[in-house]
Amino acid sequence: MRRILITIVTTMVMLSGCSVYKIDIQQGNTLEAEKVAQLETGMDKQQVQYLLGTAMLKDPFHPNRWDYVYSFTPGGGKMKRHHLTLYFENDRLVTVDTSEMNPDYMDNKARTISSTK
Length: 117
Description:
Structural class: alpha+beta
Oligomer: single chain
Strand content: 25-35%
Largest sheet: 5 strands, antiparallel
Number of helices: 4
Number of strands: 5
CATH topology: Beta-lactamase Inhibitory Protein, Chain:B, domain 1
CATH class: Alpha Beta
Radius of gyration: 23 Å
């Protein structure tokens, strides 16, 4: 009886240390709300690239559209996705679309940019 009890206790102690660790997964362009808020219409492509970095998606069929995509999945949690789309005409920024950005993530100025353009 004592041997069974020791075996059970030992097994329980060993199994309590067996847990699955799930890592955080980040993919795409890290978008900071402060930098998105600094975007202004009339900026050229080089200024935008300096501010935000290289766009994740540059469609060869739509060279005047840049997409910045970012997703974050905390270990075992729900994925959060941000998608910023920029439109250019004559190599100048004309529209900033933040409609697919998480509202909690964006500050008021960045949301104002998308609603006024």
